[in-house]
Amino acid sequence: MLGLFAFVAIALAAVGTYGVIAYNVRSRVPEFGLRRALGAGTPDLLRLVLWDAMKAPLLGLVIGLLIGAFAAGRYLETFLYGITPRDPGVLFGTAALLIVTAVLACALPGRLAAGVEPSQALRQE
Question: Which residues of 17-47 are buried (b: 16+ CB within 10 A; e: fewer)?
């Protein structure tokens, strides 16, 4: 049951991240069209969107690891069986899962930004 709730939570986080990034990309279509017209390639636009989108998840992950794992770990120690609150495998596994989820949620809007045609984007203005 706990695994099901964890899966639902990570799916909701991915859908929410996708929604926010997709909205951001849609509002920046003229900018991406101008960048494309000035010579930016598909990898450049994809990198721009992914870097802008990954700032918040990376910051949250760092704060969560520092505060959540190390500060609140003492209080959770009584509830854990077989692992410690600072188990590196669990911490790095969770961090990797969250990063992969965030990258996958940002990849589709990034592909949309990378596929913007300059003529269509500049006509919107």
Answer: bbeebbeebeebbbebbbbbeeebeeeebbe
